[in-house]
Amino acid sequence: MKNKIEKSQGEVLLGDTDIDYRNIAKSNVPAKRDSNDDYYEIPQNATIREECVSCGNVDCRRCNPAEFGNEEPERQRFHSPYIYAYWKEGKKLRKRYVGKSWKDFEDSRKARAIHLRPAQYKKFKYIREEADSGNELAKKYLELGQNEEVSIEWAFRIIRDDKREQRVWKMMELAKKSNFQHDGLDQLIEFFASELKKEGLDPTNEQDIDSYLESKIE
Questions:
Q1: 159 contact partners, CB below 8 Å, separation of at least 6
Q2: Where are the domains of the chain?
Q3: How large is the C-alpha radius of gyration of the chain?
Q4: Are 55 and 46 a contacting pair, CB within 8 Å?
Q5: pLDDT, tens digit, for every residue of 155-199?
């Protein structure tokens, strides 16, 4: 039986194909378990559901409204929703955190299918999407990954850093055209975040950032 179905502003601004996943997976299998490997322990008959949780922090205004003068202290609030898996081992009920959203859950299933950790799969997905969009550097490292010549982590860092560097150069060029004087990168980022918001765009969304920069550069 299958499972039952019941980023910062500054960081982002700088910030399925017929690919054979098997070779990529072979060169990226983790040497030891870590917290990202928990998904591998979830059995196929587990029940997956959304759940509101309390963080347990006594200083949290959301979880402890009565402590901060809330008009309805009897109503406890929670952080939500997160995805959890439930299943039984003998007479014991097991519970495992899966992710922040259903998208995280789906990504975890795909990662498991090709023997990658969820964190690795997210990086691989980023590389693949960049390659599909025409990023030549991403195409190169995707091919190197298939040939087991580089790890996903290494390729991800190279592509991400290159893209951030290109964004900075574009922002500097546009700032110069706009006669905007800035004392450093922080001011530059703040300026473009405000410009994006003026046009109804999200300064934390990479697609909005890149489309904005491309439209102004042309």
A1: 126, 127, 130, 135, 137, 138, 141
A2: 7-29+115-218, 38-114
A3: 22
A4: no
A5: 999 999 998 898 889 989 988 888 888 888 888 888 898 888 888
